[in-house]
Amino acid sequence: METRRVFFAEVLFSGRVQGVGFRWRTLKIAQEFDVAGTVRNLSDGRVLLCAEGAERDVAAFVSAVEEEMKTFIRGVEKRTGTREASAAGFSVAG
User: Which among 4, 5, 16, 23 is annotated as catalytic?
Assistant: First the structure.
């Protein structure tokens, strides 16, 4: 059985990103792109977005989230690469 490799992005957003609808807006934006993954609040006040799919789709999705939520974001840390596909659909976690 062949494994499917996908592009992924793990993005940490800092700023006033909790308690402002960040995760739910991210979920809504995800529905506009062919991506899978999760978005979750972290105990340190940041939000972690994990997305996978075609590189173009993931990049456009992350950019759309950054644009939509720019008034709340003060910092962004990204890690990208390729890996075996591990997600199905997009959801709010935690």
Answer: 23
